Amino acid sequence: MDLRGSNQPVCAFCDSKRLGLVMDFGEVGLAGAFLKPEQFATERTFPMRLHFCKDCYAVQVTDKVPADVMFETTSISPRRSALCATTLGNTPPR
Fold first, then answer.
1. DSSP codes joined into one string, 1-47
2. Whose CB has fewer CB within 10 Å in the chain, the N or C terminal residue?
3. Max Cα separation, the chain?
């Protein structure tokens, strides 16, 4: 989300500040983390709000997770890729 010096989100497409809140999902964990039950209590969460731009009509999630956090947590390792392929009944490439 681009705040441009305030707490008001700005449209990622047309830079309008005329955004309407569609839904606030609250604090959510990142998808693809594959946590173990003992890790649930310490899972990092981030705000996730869906907005509608009243000028260009784009619907967008306005809260951004830093790339280094997102890809550190959800990166697909070779081991995880092999596990997914095995689970799906495919042989992973070597």
1. -B-TTSSS-B-TTT--S-EEEEEEEEEEEPTT----GGGGGG--EEE
2. C
3. 51
Place of tokens 């619907």: 59
b/e sequence 33-72, b meaning 16+ C-beta within 10 Å: eeeeeeeeeeeeeeebbbbbbeeeeeebbbbebeeeeeee
Question: CA-to-CA distance for 53 and 1, rounded, in angstroms?
Answer: 13
> Which pTM value belongs to this model?
0.63
What are the extents of the domains in the chain?
Answer: 19-87
Dump pLDDT digits (tens) for 46-91. 999 999 999 999 999 999 888 888 777 444 555 555 555 555 555 5
What does the alpha-carbon distance between residue 30 and residue 67 come to, in Å, rounded to a whole number? 12
